[in-house]
C-alpha cells in the first residue's frame, strides 16, 4: 500500500539531488541557496492547497 508513496518520495529526492548537483557544478553555492529559498516559499504556498485537496 505504501509503494506508490515511497516511489514518489524517492523520485523527488533523486530529482532534488540532480538539481543541486547541477546547480553546484555550473552555477555555484549562490544558485543552490537561491533555489532552496524559492523552493521553500513554493512549498509554503503548495502545502495548504494539497491539504485542502486531500480533504475533499
List the helices and strands and how they pair.
Blueprint: H1 3-26, H2 29-55
Helix proportion range? over 70%
Q: How many E strands? A: 0
Shape: flat
Low-pLDDT segments, ≥5 res: none
Q: Could you give the order of the helices and strands?
A: HH
Query: Overall pLDDT, averaged?
Result: 93
Describe the largest sheet. Answer: none
The proportion of residues in beta strands is: under 5%
> How would you classify the helix and strand content by structural class?
mainly alpha
Q: Report the total helices.
A: 2
Overall tally of domains: 1
Radius of gyration: 14 Å
Alpha carbon gap, first and last residue: 21 Å
Q: In short, what is this structure?
A:
The protein has one domain. Helix content is 91%, strand content 0%.
Describe the structure.
This protein is an all-alpha fold and 56 residues long. It is 91% helix and 0% strand. It has one domain (3-55). The chain has 2 helices and no strands. The longest helix is centred in the last third of the chain and has 27 residues, at 29-55. It is flat and about 40 Å long. The model has no long low-confidence stretch (mean pLDDT 93).
Features:
mainly alpha, 56 residues, 2 helices, 91% helix, 0% strand
